Amino acid sequence: MEMNILVGGKAGLGAARTSILLGKIFAKMGYYVYNYRDYPSLIRGGHNFNVLKVSADPIFSHDEEYDIIVAFDQTTIENHEKNLKKEGIILGDSCLKSSKLIKMDLKKITDSVGVKYVLGNDALIGALLKTLSLDIDDAIEVVEKDFKDSEKVEEVLKIGYDVVNEKFKMECSKGKEKYFLTGNEAISLGAIAGGLDVYMAYPMTPATGVLHEIARLQKKHNVLSVQIEDEIGVANAALGCSFAGARTMIGTSGGGFDLMTEALSMQGISEVPLVVYLSQRTGPSTGVPTYTEQADLKMAMSCGHGEFPRIIIAPGDANECFYRTAEALYLADKFRALVILMGDKHVGENNYTVDNFSKVINCQKFIVNSGKNYKSYEYALNGVSPRAIPGSNAVVRASSYEHNEFGNTIEDAETTKKMKDKRMLKIEAIRNEIEKLKPVSVYGKGDNLIIGWGSTKGAIVDALKELKNFKFMQISYISPFPIKLVTDEMKKSKNIILVENNQTGQLGEIIREQTGIEIKNKLLKYDGRPFTKNEIVKGVSKWK
Questions:
Q1: Are residue 12 and residue 127 in the same domain, yes or no?
Q2: 403 and 381: one domain?
């Protein structure tokens, strides 16, 4: 059983807050929930809407047709009623107009309780639960946890529940209570679980949620969240923190990442561990700042001047955001490497349900205690020099110049080549390590193969339920590229379809470069909006 609910209104009326509260209530009941957020870059006004999909089975994307619309203004009805199913209903204030509208006098309800009109949203939540024939007790528990002064909110909720009749029959899932969180929240928790010491950022949508979430949790978990004056300062300060021994991560979006790249090149030569969260949005330049895109992949692959190893990881949902972030911190420390965690607005700001998180990969720090003869860049067969930190007996050096094993500046040809070779030796060692971390996942069975990465996972996995003879290969580690795993899967497939949220099929170009196989069938979307299940089903079916 599935239910699609749209909650809409102009910015400031609480559409996002109401939808998230509803999501928590359904997750409390044991349902799987997915919440899609759509909003312009306005603090007030415009049109915001959330699409909440609720199911007894796991789900990872939203649909374009709705069973219920919760409308906070007439614009929501005008924009979305055309996508309301035949038996669908609209819940809203009595001042709104629609033949599908179940009217509620929200001002009368809020006045009777003595609260602000905006809390009429909670009356609509109560009414929604009643129309679905669901009990109100779980909702009250969630409200008690979310609101400091919850008594008035509970009263409004109960009044809304009592003034409407049951419309649909949606029985509670037998599953356990679930967590309901965004990809950004999962990244924050994964970073903390992975041993994070310091997170630095300058606010930039859609990465800002991680800065705020770690700040909220920093006292509880003894981590530090710091807002720096700009992205150039963020990257350089982070290298300083990491050099001193702190496990450090930074975050930004495309425009901020552009500013960081000189410092990332310094990481390449200094080999100071660093994790960068790159949360993509629609470009170029400021572009469409509150919408999604997957157009920064090739930029990440070649960021910074000169040649040096980069690890690029792309999680596809909140569960993966948690574990892949912990892996990123681990790999950065173990290999003294730059790790770029690729996300986007879609996976970062939308909400998923997660059953639970288990223990993450070993988050030990790879720091040695060395004496006076310590070599900061000792030549190693796998390219990874033992790492010490300032304050020990060793003299630890790092600069932007090429150097010998002790870190002293050099310019001779022999040592320059030797150090470059040493750094590139890491790639094979990293490749061997990530083979243990499931860099490629295959879902479903069939002769036809869909290939995607990052946030396209959700819609593709949901689409597989309706696609016969299709499977999906998700590539989670893009650098070093898992050549053999990808090549083997492609060679045994009849038709191969590339699905990406960009204009040029950037992953497809990387696959061609790495494997020699060109993917001709491409389903690309680049209007700032993510794929839905129906778009995938319709789009790939022509190639079966």
A1: yes
A2: yes
Q: Which helix (H) or strand (E) holds 473?
A: strand 470-475
Helices (H), 297-407: 297-301, 318-335, 345-349
Task: Tell me the chain's radius of gyration from C-alpha atoms.
Answer: 25
Spell out the residues 6+ positions from residue 17 whose beta carbon is closer than 8 angstroms to its own.
121
Phi, psi of 252 (to 5 degrees): -170, -175
pLDDT digits (tens, 9 = 90+) for 76-93: 999 999 999 999 999 999
pLDDT digit string, tens, across residues 475-521:
999 999 999 999 999 999 999 999 999 999 999 999 999 999 999 99
- Candidates 456, 477, 442; CA nearest to 294 is 456
CATH number at residue 109: 3.40.920.10
CA distance 313 to 309: 13
Domain boundaries, position 340: 180-354
471: alpha, beta or left, given left = phi > 0 and alpha = psi -120 to 50?
Answer: beta
DSSP code of residue 454: G
Please say which residue of 404, 437, 470 terminates a domain: 437
172 within domain boundaries: no
pTM beyond 0.85: yes
Residues 44, 150 share a domain: yes
Mean per-residue pLDDT, 441-450: 97
